[in-house]
Amino acid sequence: MNTNKTQHKNADVLAFLGKVLLWMPVTFALWYFVMPGIAFVSAFIADAILPLMADHVIKLIEPNEREINVVTQFGGQSFPISAMNYAYSFPFLLAMILASPDTILGKIKKYAISIIPLFLVVLWGVVFGAFGVLAFHLGQEVAQQLNTTSTTRLIISLGFQLGKLMIPPLTPIILWLYLYRDYARELVPRLFQKDETE
Amino acid sequence: MRLSVFLMVLVTLFTLELIPFVHEAIILPFTSFVAYISAGVASFFDSTIQSEGIIMRSLANGTAVKIMPGCNGVEAMICLAAAIIAFTATWKQKIIGLIAGFIAIQLLNIVRIISLFYLLQWNKEWFEWAHLYVWQALIILDALIIFILWVRWLPAEPSDDMDGKSEQMA
To answer: pTM of the entire structure?
Structure first.
């Protein structure tokens, strides 16, 4: 197994890792500056969705720099949700794309395609984050207004944890494996073995 | 890789992790162990560091970090375990991958905890930045690289005793 070819390919994998690590400071710095825009778009979409799901509890969703404010129906009581906690998929995927062999146009196209799924990641986090605060942190009165059952509370809890701990880091990996499957196939031919035989 | 198996194992293990009994009986003791090891490693160059449960503390200046879910490497390990289990290989190869992956993820996680501990003493804003965003990405990237290297380590030809007959892309 430890042939020269294998070692050469392992070096390719580590070279890719090195390039991602070099690009990450650049993409994360860029992300910091565009984050108000991401928060604005996320708040705009969340404002269309969340009140529909619980209009008797949620009055308004509004962007506030890098955060999203959820305004409740309870005397204008509001709470912030840090959109950045769910949005680091944006710079992470960008670093992986920039580290992959492709033309500039190809990289731009692939990142543009990824924008919608990346916003869905933020949206998932914001929606479950908001319901998590409403169901567990604003007291009995608010929680009762949500009309939750033990099952829905479990779903909110699981959705919140998935949206915070799993989906934001995992989504860029899955998107990259899909968008750069030819390059990934070069690095790991066996990963796509069935595709090649089909 | 069988995507359906990957997702099923991923969600199952993650849900298990959230069950209060599992959290109390396995995750918290494991997290305390991670804090203990991290403090032990850091004490090689800073004798004022101690661990207490899931907390790592400096006796010199009182700085302390509490290792919470998401910072104990368990989620990255769940992702890697789901990928390894979903991939067609013998159970022996999978167990080797899981053990090697566990060691590699936890080694990097110790670096994460120690680096965050000192970053907190230097600048809280940079600590938050590294803690909430950068290290989250780095740990999952570590899991991806380990998975790629593990797949590359597998023999080129599938052997007869593999537990699955088909392979699909991720």
So the answer is: 0.88
